[in-house]
Amino acid sequence: MRESYPLVSVIIPTYNRKEEVLDCVAWLKRSSYPNSEIIVIDDGSSDGTTEAMEKEHSEVILIQNVSNLGAAYSRNEGQRIARGEYLLFVDSDIVLDENATGEMKLVLQDEEVGLVGPMIYYFDDPTKIFFGGAVIDLRKGLTQYANTNVVDRGQFVEPRIMKHGHSMSVFMTKREIASTLKGFDREFFIRYEESDYAMQIEKKGYKIVHVPKAKAWHKVALAPDNVASRFLGGCNDVQSAKVAYYLGMSRIRFMRKHARRRDFVLFCFSYLVFITIIYNIKFLIHRKMRNLLGFNWGTLRGLYRHLLLGQV
Questions:
Q1: Which residues have CB under 8 Å from 165's CB, separation 6+?
Q2: DSSP letter assigned to residue 308
Q3: Which of 9, 175, 178, 245 is most solvent-facing, going by the fewest CB within 10 Å?
Q4: Residues 88 and 21 placed together within one structural domain of the fold
């Protein structure tokens, strides 16, 4: 039977999310897919994550980082020891439907497909879509999120190809593809590491596909339903000045890596100005002054490194 179900390695990075990661693993253990291993990478947590995991889910393969080294580093460590033919990366504040692994693996069997991701709903509003796929405009540096805050009444069924797209928080690829990449780029400490990984796969000639039949739920606050949030996201997920700093810098680095040189320069002198103004307004409205300063410092640092110095 297991020959019909190749091993799937589930790789979960986590940092100070003890309750969330315990729940994430508990849901994964209910999966209808019969052949998987679960790898949890504790990225220097101080909330007792490791001890709780060893007590409640002793069968899980557990890696402990000595400090908070970032999601990209943790995913690379998980991938390094994974034995599966398929690699399923899952954020620790996600729970998956029991059929999600099988549905993603079914689409990924197509030799032209390189990465797949599920439909993601709000955990506290289980039929309202949090993430229905995303496409990045490599001229404007804007990410367009599909169907955010739309209620799913069964209207989304067929897989959809996403050019310059990615899947947030949950995605699956094949080991044979992952082994040809440079891994997750550690320079994207918090943001854009998933987008960069998907772009690496797309540049190899593979398709990025959104799979609505695969379902997951994300433990995040409801996003405001407005144009700015659809393209830039809300402020709720920018929890600190550190996150805001990397958000400002990582967008510029991503564009430098993947946009044409001409489009990158145009982005820096036009669309980036618009994006920066919008974020500053949003931080001011929410009175998040430390985040505002962090975002602007990250933006200036990104421009210095990637526009003036030309670093990639």
A1: 133, 134, 135, 136, 198, 208, 210
A2: I
A3: 175
A4: yes
| DSSP character at residue 109 | T
Residue-wise pLDDT tens digits, 53-112 = 999 999 999 999 999 999 999 999 999 999 999 999 999 999 999 999 999 999 999 999
Does residue 107 fall inside a structural domain? yes
Residue 146 and residue 269 in one domain: no
Q: Is 258 helix (H, G, I), strand (E, B) or coil?
A: helix
Spatial separation of the C-alpha atoms in residues 268 and 275, rounded to whole Å:
10
CB atoms closer than 10 angstroms to residue 141:
23
The C-alpha atoms of residue 23 and residue 41 are separated, in whole angstroms, by 15
On whether the CB atoms of residues 148 and 225 are closer than 8 A, the answer is yes
- pTM for this structure? 0.92
Rounded Cα distance, 164 and 187, in Å: 20
Beta strand spans in the chain (E): 8-14, 36-42, 61-64, 86-90, 94-96, 113-122, 125-131, 134-136, 143-145, 160-161, 165-166, 170-174, 207-218
Same structural domain, 15 and 54:
yes
Given a contact cutoff of 8 angstroms between Cβ atoms, the answer to whether 185 and 195 are in contact is no
Q: From the centroid of its chain, how far is CA 217?
A: 14
Query: What CATH code is carried by the domain that includes residue 197?
Result: 3.90.550.60
Q: Residue 112, SS3?
A: coil
Question: Does 224 map to a domain?
Answer: no
